Structure formats: C-alpha cells, structure tokens
C-alpha cells in the first residue's frame, strides 16, 4: 500500500472510451486505495438525457462535478482509508470543470490525470462497448469541446495536471507512465 501524509484525490479524466475506468482501476490496485466511478454520481436526469442521445450542458454538469469532488475528498480523508488516497474517474473535459472540482475539494491536494487519443480510436472503442448510454455523436462533441491540460495546468509547470497521449500504450503502460510521473512512492 502507498501512504501519503496529506490526503490526495486523483481524478482520471478524458472523453468516453479513452480508458478512464480501466486506468483508474489499475491505479487503485497499484496504490491499494479506493476507486469511485464518476458516472455513478450523475443525477437520474443526466443519465436519462444522455440515454436519449442529448449531450449535457454546463448547467447539468456543475452539481455532478461537485458531488464527485466532495465524495472523493471524503474518501481520501476517511480514517478507514489508511492510504489517504482516493481515485475517481470523471471526464472533466474543460479547464473550468477541473478548476471547479478543485474548488469543491475541501482544500485537498488533487492530481488531474487526463487521458486522450484520436477520435478514430475513441469511436472504435465506444462502438464496441455494449449497453452504455454514451452514443457516438456525443463522443465527437466531447472531443470537440475537450481541453487537454497544458501550460500552467501541468505538474511540470507547478500545476496539478498530467496529460497522457495514450494512443500507443497498453493499459499497463499507461499505469506505469502515470505512477512514474506522480511519484507518490
Ligand atoms: N490503453 C488502452 N489501450 C487500448 N484499449 C484500452 C486501453 N484502455 C482502455 N481500453 C479499452 O477501451 C474501452 C473503453 O475503456 P474504458 O476504461 O471503459 O474507458 P472510459 O471509462 O474512458 O469510457 C474498453 O474496451 C477498454 O478495454
Ligand atoms: O466514459 C464515458 O462514458 C463518458 O466520458 C462519460 O463519463 C460521460 O462523458 C460523462 O459522464 C458525461 O459528462 P461529460 O459530458 O461532461 O463528459
């Protein structure tokens, strides 16, 4: 198990099909810490909207982002969680969403890990996924609004974010790339 002195929330983001859930689960195994699936925190109205093929608006997203942030912060600080780390998946496509997640996180340390790849790869992966609410045209919309973290947002420049172009990386390679750059242990 990895122990950090200060509670830490790691959010794994990116558009649908980029590998958030896969990567977040691997990281949670590596750090031996809890993992929260961000999609489990959507209000029913959001799920129904996406199931109808309608993209969410910013107004649909704020409460969801706040809920993900607050839950992950609670889990990171929970005395029953000795690692003091919580990993959550959440698309967090725009910088303003990442800033909002941070503002709701009870002053906790955060790391935003943003996965991205080509629209062709995303489309193929989402098409192969059965029974999920996310439709192909919505993936294109996500891709169009996506803001990959850069400049001052990046860890290497003193920010909280790590951007991972994972087109040619296996899940295990993505995991070890992230672990290497977060260097928590
Ligand atoms: N690094 C990777 N390389 C190739 N395929 C991947 C990789 N990571 C995840 N996948 C596959 O892509 C699909 C979507 O992954 P998933 O983790 O559900 O993405 P998301 O949570 O971002 O929607 C799954 O079939 C998964 O096995
Ligand atoms: O992996 C996925 O299937 C999606 O990324 C999924 O998580 C969805 O996109 C959001 O929950 C909706 O929110 P956004 O429209 O803000 O991505």
From TrEMBL:
<keyword id="KW-0547">Nucleotide-binding</keyword>
<dbReference type="Pfam" id="PF13671">
    <property type="entry name" value="AAA_33"/>
</dbReference>
<dbReference type="GO" id="GO:0005524">
    <property type="term" value="F:ATP binding"/>
</dbReference>
<keyword id="KW-0418">Kinase</keyword>
<comment type="pathway">
    <text>Carbohydrate acid metabolism; D-gluconate degradation.</text>
</comment>
<keyword id="KW-0808">Transferase</keyword>
<dbReference type="InterPro" id="IPR006001">
    <property type="entry name" value="Therm_gnt_kin"/>
</dbReference>
<protein>
    <recommendedName>
        <fullName>Gluconokinase</fullName>
        <ecNumber>2.7.1.12</ecNumber>
    </recommendedName>
</protein>
<dbReference type="GO" id="GO:0005975">
    <property type="term" value="P:carbohydrate metabolic process"/>
</dbReference>
<dbReference type="GO" id="GO:0005737">
    <property type="term" value="C:cytoplasm"/>
</dbReference>
<dbReference type="InterPro" id="IPR027417">
    <property type="entry name" value="P-loop_NTPase"/>
</dbReference>
<comment type="similarity">
    <text>Belongs to the gluconokinase GntK/GntV family.</text>
</comment>
<dbReference type="GO" id="GO:0046316">
    <property type="term" value="F:gluconokinase activity"/>
</dbReference>
<keyword id="KW-0067">ATP-binding</keyword>
């Amino acid at each position: 198990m990895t122990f950090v002195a200060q509670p830490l929330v790691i959010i794994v983001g990116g558009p649908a099909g980029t590998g958030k859930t896969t990567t977040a689960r691997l990281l949670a195994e590596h750090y031996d810490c809890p993992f929260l699936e961000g999609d489990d925190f959507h209000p029913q109205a959001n799920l129904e909207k996406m199931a109808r093929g309608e993209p969410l608006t910013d107004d649909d997203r704020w409460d969801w982002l706040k809920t993900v942030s607050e839950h992950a912060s609670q889990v990171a600080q929970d005395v029953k969680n000795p690692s003091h780390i919580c990993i959550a998946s959440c698309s967090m496509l725009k910088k303003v969403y990442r800033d909002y997640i941070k503002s709701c996180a009870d002053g906790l340390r955060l790391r935003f890990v943003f996965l991205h790849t080509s629209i062709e790869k995303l489309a193929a992966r989402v098409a192969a996924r059965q029974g999920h609410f996310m439709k192909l045209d919505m993936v294109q919309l996500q891709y169009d609004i996506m803001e990959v973290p850069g400049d001052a947002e990046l860890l290497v420049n003193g920010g909280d974010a790590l951007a991972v172009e994972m087109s040619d990386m296996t899940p295990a390679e993505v995991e070890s790339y992230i672990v290497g750059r977060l260097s928590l242990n």
